[in-house]
Amino acid sequence: MQLLLVAIVALPLLGAAAALLPAPPGLKGSSPEQAVLRHGVTVTGVVLLAAIVLAAGFDHDRSGTMQAESNISWIPALGIRLHFGIDGISLPLLVLTALLTFLCALYSYVKRPGGDGSAGAAASPRAFIAFLLVLESGTLATFAVLDLMLFFLAFEMVLIPMYFLIARWGGEGREKAAWKFILFTLLGSVVMLLGLLLVGLQGGTFDMVALATDNGAGLTRTTQLIAVLAIGIGLAVKTPMWPLHSWLPDAHTAAPTVGSVLLAGVLLKMGTYGLVRIVLPIAPEGAQYFAPYLAAFAAVGIIYGSLACLALVRQGGGSDLKRLIAYSSVGHMGFVLLGIATLTHTGVNGALFANIAHGLITGLLFFLVGALKERTGSTDLDQLAAHTDGGAALYGRAPRFGGLLAFGAVASLGLPGLAGFWGEMLALLGAFHPADGLSRPAYLTFMAIGGLGTLLTAAYLLLVVRRVCMGDRPKEPMAATEQAAVSLTDVRPYEFAAWTPLVVLTVLAGLWPALLLGLTNPAVQNLLPGVSR
Fold first, then answer.
1. Cβ-proximal residues to 196 (8 Å cutoff; 6+ apart), any chain
2. What pLDDT is stored for residue 475 in this prediction?
3. Interval 133-177: pLDDT, tens
4. Three-class DSSP category at 84
5. Is the peptide bond before 256 cis (omega within 30 degrees of 0)?
6. Torsion of CA 121, 122, 126, 128, to 10 degrees
7. What is the arithmetic mean of pLDDT over 262-288?
């Protein structure tokens, strides 16, 4: 199992190198472009299969302890080791990353990558697949490494490929959005590195397991406060937490479909994962000091994201659906941050559950919006409403597509029985009774704000469904030629293959939450040993 985990992390890197060769070994196609796209599907498929085998061999009775560990000295002078391992917290994120990357590669095999008006980008699938595989390797490594310096390297490894995915294969405004993404995340990472170095040098080791076992015993209170502030800023940028979120809407709006899916589905999870894996167990005093501030920012983010979405869905023009979903991520990740800020088993488990649910649901929504743009040529809500107007809206012209979009919307608003419900509910329950030492009246206020956010979320998502899926009854009947001009193709076979797993898992997680909570809860109890609830 140790070698399998290392192989899962390393295989995408080897696949990226192979993709740059004149012809990917062992693969043929009608053209070199088709061959390299098939190579991407093959490599990501093998990684997904290996991740499933790893999950099948995972000992669920010991999900609170590290498994499949490998620990080899790498830079002895600095005490940095090649330490890999997984527990009930990291395993779901590892499988989610492998799944979403495979689905993106599968989608790209038929719908070849190419930015709007960027013929050169469309003609370079070799570079596209290489960047996609490097991005997958960096994300997988982030969830698998157990050394602070390795975590930082993996955390940074994803920035360059995501920058190029946006800048070369994105749509209008891609260059500005890519630069904004890289500058925000790099500046946050510089601050985070200082905090990680402080923890490692003062704690005497960069090993995350050893530091978590000490539970902050080797770090003074001042050291913990400085470290949590520095590390927290870097992680908050990637999450993204309000008010450090402003790079996200531009990045999502400009990114290609697969870029948006991976950015929302897995890259945002790296920030919250770092808070749970590093900040909470390694610097508990610092975490408790800053927890109320984190909860306050989370509550503001929930309301801000919801109000921004409401403004977008109601304004007269320029209301981009991709931008709306990006702002919704600010609100949804606010619930994740609120759960973490409660410092309770209930809240942190809710945060981890919401992480996975958001990856599944928002990944599906970005797939759907990308396909809708391909069909209509726009993601502007007013134009989409025009395309679905005339009494024969998306439900009537593409019923399966309309049904999937409505499903994604109601899952995102937290309908009971679907994955989006449990994480937000547990985060609010954690805020109802936060950890000892935290102000309960303050957290009850944050809980009330979060509850209001769920109502606002339902409002804007139902408005989206109303405008896009149902349309408005026209004043005059449309001519047959006009109806033909706005006809929409329903779900295609390759889209069905790429989207079905996300739908199935969203339903499965909603109906059987113990499948995921049974993995995370023992690990959370180990990370928060002093908490009784």
1. 148, 149, 151, 152, 206, 227, 231, 278
2. 42
3. 999 999 999 999 999 999 999 998 998 999 988 888 887 778 888
4. strand
5. no
6. 60
7. 91
Cis peptide leading into residue 32 (ω within 30°): no
Q: What's the token pair of residue 317?
A: 């023009």
- The radius of gyration of the chain's CA atoms, rounded to the nearest angstrom, is 22
pLDDT tier at 116 (50, 70, 90 boundaries)? very low
Going by their DSSP bridges, the two strands 80-86 and 67-75 should be labelled as antiparallel
Cis check for the bond before 243: say yes or no (omega within 30 of 0).
yes
At residue 531, the pLDDT reads 59
- With both helix axes pointing from N to C terminus, report the angle between 440-464 and 419-432 in degrees, rounded to the nearest 10: 160
Phi, psi of 75 (to 5 degrees): -125, 90
Give the count of beta carbons closer than 10 Å to the beta carbon of residue 114: 18
Helix (H, G, I), strand (E, B) or coil at 85: strand
CB contact at 8 A, 170 and 162: no
Q: What angle do CA 431, 409, 55 make, to 5 degrees?
A: 70
Q: Is the pLDDT of residue 100 over 90?
A: yes
User: Tokens standing for 293?
Assistant: 């501030």
Half-sphere exposure of 345 (CA within 13 A, CB side): 17
Going from the C-alpha of 201 to that of each of 122, 196, 224, 527, the distances in angstroms are: 47, 9, 12, 21
* Torsion angles phi and psi, residue 344, rounded to 5: -115, 160
Amino acid at site 514: A
C-beta of residue 55 within 8 angstroms of C-beta of residue 515 = no
pLDDT greater at residue 449 or residue 476: 449
**Type of residue numbered 423:** G
CA distance 269 to 177: 20
Helix (H) or strand (E) holding 82: strand 80-86
What is the length of the chain?
A: 533
Q: How confident is the model at residue 485 (pLDDT cuts 50, 70, 90)?
A: very low
Residue 73 has pLDDT above 90, yes or no: no
Asked whether 421 and 342 are in contact (CB, 8 A), the reply is no
**Cα gap 144→67, rounded to integer Å:** 10
Residue holding tokens 């009537």?
Answer: 396
**How is residue 75 annotated by DSSP?**
E
Residue 255, SS3?
coil
Nearest alpha carbon to residue 500 among 53, 92, 102, 35: 102
Q: Give which of 277, 271, 195, 184 is closest to 230, Cα–Cα.
A: 195
- Angstrom CA distances, 326 to 181, 332, 378, stand at 14, 10, 16
Q: In angstroms, what CA-CA distances link 189 with 193, 224, 234, 330?
A: 6, 18, 5, 20
Helix pair 125-144, 2-19: axis angle to 10 deg: 160
Three-state DSSP string of 181-232? HHHHHHHHHHHHHHHHHHHHHHHCCCEHHHHHHHCCCCCCHHHHHHHHHHHH
The pLDDT of residue 200 is above 70: yes
Secondary structure letter of residue 264 according to DSSP: I
